[in-house]
Amino acid sequence: MNKREFIKNLKNKLNISEKELEKSFNIAIELIKDILIKGEKLNFGKFGCFYIKEKNERFCYNPLLGKKILVEPKKVIAFRANKKLL
């Protein structure tokens, strides 16, 4: 499901205009992004938790070059689902 389909499904359940829903959805995504950039966890109770995970630098094999390359350390968004969700 993509963003457009999600908003249409939500529109059918809430009876709100699609423009208002899309605007609210975009604001919510920006808020989530700001919280994660600050390094805080975002816990949605019975749904799950979003957090920033730091990956260490590592060596990976590049099949196009046929040799190992160093991948720099980076931060990624991670999600841990609540056990009750599944």
How would you briefly describe this protein structure?
Helices cover 37% and strands 34% of the residues.
Descriptive overview:
By secondary structure, this protein is an alpha+beta fold. Helix content is 37%, strand content 34%. Helix 1 (3-14) crosses helix 2 (18-37). The two termini are 19 Å apart. The model has no long low-confidence stretch (mean pLDDT 92).
Identify the notable features of this structure and list them briefly.
single chain, alpha+beta, three-stranded antiparallel β-sheet, two-stranded antiparallel ribbon, 2 helices, 34% strand
Helix- and strand-based class?
alpha+beta
Question: What is the string of helix and strand elements?
Answer: HHEEEEE
Lateral arrangement of strands in the main beta sheet: 1-2-5
Radius of gyration over all CA atoms, rounded: 18 Å
Which percent band covers the strand fraction? 25-35%
Number of strands: 5
SS field, number of helical segments:
2
Give the overall shape. elongated
**Quaternary state of the chains:** single chain
Q: Strand count, sense and closure of the main sheet?
A: 3 strands, antiparallel
Low-confidence stretches: none
What is the share of helical residues? 25-40%
State mean pLDDT (0 to 100 scale): 92
| Distance between the amino and carboxyl termini | 19 Å
